[in-house]
Amino acid sequence: MVNAMQSEDIQAIEKVMQAYVQGGQTGNNDTLRPIFHELATICGYVGPDLFAGPIEMFYEWHTENGPAKDLTAQAPKIDIEGSAATVRIELDNWTGHRFSDFFTLAKIDGQWQIMSKVFFLHE
Asked: Which fold does the domain 4-121 belong to in CATH?
């Protein structure tokens, strides 16, 4: 059973994920930056190449790829324990790519922020 505090946290995390999808659709890094902690990281493979490092790498990739106007996302799967959470979201047609994204989030000063993004790029 979900208590009132968990319900609020779920709604807050869902808003973070909505901002993530919206940032992808619009191509706007200014929409993405507030939902990622400044020390966030990214990791995944693009073909045989490991794409890993500070989240700035994601912003650079996103700028190069531009808006993903036809991006669709399934409802996120959220798991929360206190001030820590994980989210899995399936994304289709991010500039022609399909991703499974896995996020870890932390509640810092009352705000949920993404601390890491690990992705799987489907062929």
From this structure: Nuclear Transport Factor 2; Chain: A, (3.10.450)
